[in-house]
Design brief:
The complex is a heterodimer of chains A (267) and B (154). Chain A has 267 residues and is an alpha/beta fold. Helix content of chain A is 37%, strand content 13%. Chain B is globular, with a radius of gyration of 18 Å. Classes of the chains: A alpha/beta (267), B alpha/beta (154).
Chain lengths: 267, 154
């Protein structure tokens, strides 16, 4: 921890970064994101297993982008989403430095995209076991049971769009949900439109979602929305190959095709 | 007298192949089911999955999506992109438990007027057997909504 704080202070002191996004302790609760601009404030930084937030979502904010040179105290999911964002040419205006702690508990400083790529590929996260278990359970169900499951779950959705706000890949300035001519998704304060919204969200993240699971974790109604994208990722990986957030070259599965793509349902 | 159920089928077709194929079926005086409503698109690549959902939202019982055969696309690769999208979309819907048998995907070329007529007939028959698509309508929870409205009115 001291090591991390010292390094962060050093980077802020010598001007390598203007703004550092990391985690600070919140009175015995789970660590919360914090934004540090002065070297003397670096002593509030913490980093542990409980630092689950995907901080890369803040990189889309104008206030953050204005700082240009940004340091990120990041977990592996955050690093992976940064990789995906870099491959989608979203962070071209920023100079990023990454601070992370590896599995051996040592501080790792990555100062270039190439270093980041090497680190992410060496420590690539797999599908979380609890998600895998849930996916297998759902896939083993009958169609009617799955429909009932999702109908029950999605009826809890109040369309707060927290899952969209927390997602680093949802960076469109105008979203389909706000589109009103035509209105694709009903905005009324009842459950209509929930099915459309969640299908739309998952489809737009297909082949781009990096499985950080933030959308499911953040949901105030406790809907496991991250399972939709996790299932989709699994499907896309099997059918078309390639992993999201793996390489800087990118290549978005839904943006490309192979003439030999195999399906069995088109008559 | 009880009305017999007639399904509403919406067909999303591409301008260059399937629309021309349907046209051929017409000019050849091939008879086929009148349940289908055809919507013409520039290319299958233009057929957004939200349009399919919108059709169900507005009361469609079945959907046909059809375009040029692979390698025949007027815009070279629109149908290849569409094929990928449908593969993902279909598996997505299946994961959500959506009855994907209500959506028929097909390739119909401009010369296949007969295939188009058969496709429409087959789809209409299968959807007629499946019955009215109430699953989706029930998603609206209109019962609860009705109760809310009544409560508000009171």
């Amino acid at each position: 921890m001291k090591q991390l704080q010292d390094k962060a202070a050093e980077l802020l002191e010598n001007g390598t970064v203007n703004l550092l996004i990391g985690f600070s302790e919140d009175l015995g609760k789970r660590p919360v994101p914090c934004f540090i601009e002065k070297a003397e404030e670096a002593n509030i930084l913490v980093f542990n297993q409980e630092c689950k937030n995907n901080l890369s979502v803040y990189l889309h904010k104008k206030e953050v982008k204005d700082a240009v040179k940004i340091g990120l105290v990041a977990n592996i999911a955050t690093l992976r989403s940064v990789m995906q964002l870099l491959s989608e040419n979203q962070l071209w205006s920023l100079t990023l430095t990454y601070l992370t702690v590896n599995t051996a508990g040592e501080l790792v400083v990555l100062s270039s995209a190439e270093e980041l790529e090497a680190y992410v590929q060496a420590n690539f996260p797999t599908c979380r076991p609890e998600d895998k278990e849930m996916l297998d359970k759902l896939n083993a169900m009958t169609r009617q049971e799955r429909w009932a499951f999702w109908k029950d779950q999605l009826s809890e959705c109040v369309k707060c769009y927290a899952c969209r706000a927390v997602c680093p890949m949802c960076y469109c300035t105008v979203c389909t949900t706000e589109c009103n001519q035509p209105q694709w998704i009903k905005t009324s304060a009842d459950t209509s439109g929930n099915f459309e919204y969640h299908t739309m969200r998952a489809m737009h993240l297909g082949g781009r979602c990096i499985n950080c699971g933030e959308c499911g974790r953040i949901c105030p109604a406790g809907i496991p929305v991250h399972l939709l994208t996790a299932q989709m990722n699994q499907e896309i990986e099997q059918e078309f190959g390639g992993k999201t957030g793996w390489s800087l070259k990118g290549g978005y599965a839904m943006n490309s095709f192979k003439p030999g793509d195999k399906e069995n349902f088109i008559k | 007298m009880a009305e017999t159920f007639e399904p509403k089928i919406v067909a999303f077709v591409c301008n260059w192949c399937t629309y021309a194929g349907a046209d051929l079926a017409g000019t050849s005086r091939t008879k086929y089911e009148t349940n289908v409503r055809i919507i013409r698109f520039p290319c299958t690549g233009r057929i957004d999955f939200m349009l399919l959902i919108k059709a169900f939202q507005n009361g469609a019982d079945g959907i046909i999506v059809s375009g040029c055969h692979p390698n025949d696309c007027h815009y070279t690769s629109g149908n290849f992109h569409a094929r990928r999208r449908w593969m993902v979309f279909k598996s997505m819907l299946e994961f959500m438990g959506f009855p994907t048998e209500r959506i028929t995907f097909s390739w119909v070329s401009a010369a296949e007027g007969k295939k188009w007529a058969d496709l429409v007939n087959e789809t209409t028959d299968s959807v007629r057997a499946l019955g009215s698509f109430t699953d989706y309508k029930n998603l609206d929870f209109s019962q609860f909504n009705q109760m809310d409205h009544e409560a508000i009115a009171r």
